[in-house]
Design a protein that fits this description.
Elements lengths: L3 E7 L2 H8 L5 E9 L8 H5 L6 E8 L6 H11 L7 E2 L2 E2 L5 E5 L2 H16 L10 E4 L4 E2 L7 H4 L4 H17 L10
Parallel strand pairs: 6-7
Antiparallel strand pairs: 1-3, 1-6, 2-3, 2-8, 4-5
Amino acid sequence: MPNETAILGGGCFWCVEAAIKQLEGIISVRSGYMGGHLDKPTYQQVCSGRTGHVEVAEITFDPSIISFNDLLHVFFTLHDPTTLNRQGNDVGEQYRSVIFYRDEAQKKTAEDVTAELTRGKVFDSPIVTAIEPATTFWVAEDYHQDYFANNPYQPYCLGVVAPKVKKIRDKYAKRLKAQTA
């Protein structure tokens, strides 16, 4: 079974990258931007909120180890999919919750998982996560890659990223890569 790619936006890409990359079956995670109207956007341009881009993680995974369905359940655990254009103190369209699907199978899975979580009343408020076709992925600047691993004591990492990484470690302990368990 060939590797697959998922593109997920759930607030700051540092959080999504750090939390997801610790799972078995994850081959690589790259932080970047998707969904906007500007070619080759910079971090400063995206942070302005005027480009239409979302901070996303491009996740390459082995579907024989972790399915897209399982990955989406982790994604929905990782962030608050009920807040429009915000995650905590990160506010703006660039922090919105979105699943950029690569094919019709991913679209259907995203719709099914969202419906399942809604039926199960997993969240107190309605899920506002958008499900949109993938467009061009623009890889973020080098210093954004592995940001948490390279800056674990930076205040944002201590206060925001680390708790999300811990939440995934605790909830999905049996699914962690051996070196992060």
